[in-house]
Amino acid sequence: MNTVTQESTRQWQAADAQHFLHPFTDHAGLARKGARIITRADNIYLWDSEGNKILDAMSGLWCVNVGYGQQPLIDAATRQMKELPFYNTFFQTSHPPAIELAELLAQVTPPQFQHVFFTGSGSEGNDTIVRMVRRYWDIKGEPARKVIISRFNGYHGSTMAGSSLSGMKGMHDQGGVIPDITHIEQPHWFEHGRPQNLSREDFGLIAAGWLETKILEVGPERVAAFIGEPVQGAGGVMVPPSTYWPEIQRICDKYGILLVSDEVICGFGRTGHWFGCETMDVKPDLMTIAKGITSGYVPLGGVMVGERVARALIDEGGEFNHGFTYSGHPVACAVALANIRLIQQLDLVRHVREDIGPYLAQRFAELADHPLVGEVQSCGMMGAVQLVKDKAASTLFEPDLEVGMLCRAHCFGNGLIMRAVGDRMIVAPPLVMTRAQVDEMMALIRRCLDLTLAELHQRSWL
Ligand code: PMP
């Protein structure tokens, strides 16, 4: 147990500001405020260095699917560190944890997936996707097929290829986009469909049609693949209309284009099936996996390679000049094995699909009566509320007001980790949550919405 004082918090904050460059952070701003120091965790709760208990409604960073403190994962890491802490999988060598994990992944993923390529993270997974799909088309004698289509406001990582696939302007402005990656608009009904009085289903077909328009603009003979998250996570938990993904599949099939499902967030039970593509009823050629594969206890990512691509790589491709020191890291693989077995043992995927996911949806839907809430969406253990200025007219706040950040500050101050994406407040809590814990989270969310509303009135912004 930590015995920490305000003094040690200040020392940590000072050292942090002095030496530590954080991801996606305004460093000067953070140095002025001081970082919050998280010192321990258990189940769905965190504690900071001041002793405050916080409900972690974001599962760390969308990854701690089984919750904190799970002994089987801790034991697996300890055992593997003693047995074989590292060996590579280059140069005709392999080891039991990587082999057993590859075998288990072939069982829990959809049937077209019999092979996995391991990486260290989701970003490396998507870099691997870019190299692998281009290699596939080379092998198939269509080297002109280089272009990969993704979506604005999608998120696929922060390496050069990952950030290029991502559709985030703020990232593209800092470092550009690698050649032959292009984007289409996201299937966001609230922004694009609702103002035109389109039903969600009709809008879903139109939004998928933007892919076909782009394919024809680029030239089908130049298009290699389409990549998307089944439910966009970092973009704001954007749950697409039910018609969207099947139509995307139809269009990819029509032009022979590879379909890639980025399952870094949606994988390993979060949407109520093992993988988000199953919830969306599509059959991708490739899947990016990470995060929930180890519940974030240690870093691991990978690409599930469907038979269409695997056969070309294996039977016709010769050497694929790609790989990482940590491809199939034994400790990470041992933890992933323990994690997946625990998900199976606790029947967590069914828990999300049949119990806690529907309960979260029901409790989230109740937020629709709040004066600040314009739209509520959820899918499995992911949820979003769109804050609006005028509920009746569905008018959004001016972005400069940063109302989402204001709400997030109230969450921070009231023991709740909830994320703000613009004015969309989102959660993705651990899958092990109980109904009582969902109730506890919802009470905190409602309190923070009320506090935000009161502050907006006080500032005369409403
Ligand atoms: N794809 C998706 C859908 C993600 O959400 C993320 C990370 N949030 C990534 C890829 C990148 O994963 P990593 O941060 O492990 O590189």
Write up this protein.
The chain has 462 residues and is an alpha/beta fold. The protein has helices at residues 6-19, 27-33, 59-62, 71-83, 96-108, 122-139, 160-165, 169-172, 189-193, 200-218, 244-255, 276-279, 307-316, 330-345, 348-365, 403-413, 435-458, and strands at residues 38-42, 45-48, 53-56, 113-119, 147-151, 181-184, 223-228, 258-262, 286-289, 301-306, 373-378, 383-387, 416-417, 419-421, 424-427. It folds into two domains: 36-66 and 347-458, Aspartate Aminotransferase, domain 1 (Alpha-Beta Complex), CATH 3.90.1150; 71-345, 3-Layer(aba) Sandwich (Aspartate Aminotransferase, domain 2). It has 17 helices and 15 strands. A hairpin with a 2-residue loop joins strand 1 and strand 2 (45-48). Helix 5 (96-108) runs parallel beside helix 14 (330-345) and helix 10 (200-218) runs parallel beside helix 11 (244-255). The radius of gyration is 22 Å and the shape is globular. The mean pLDDT is 97. The site of 4'-deoxy-4'-aminopyridoxal-5'-phosphate (PMP) has 16 residues, from helix 6.
Task: Please provide a brief summary of the model.
This protein is α/β, with parallel strands linked by helices and about 450 residues long. The protein is built from 17 helices and 15 strands. A hairpin with a 2-residue loop joins strand 1 (about 40) and strand 2.
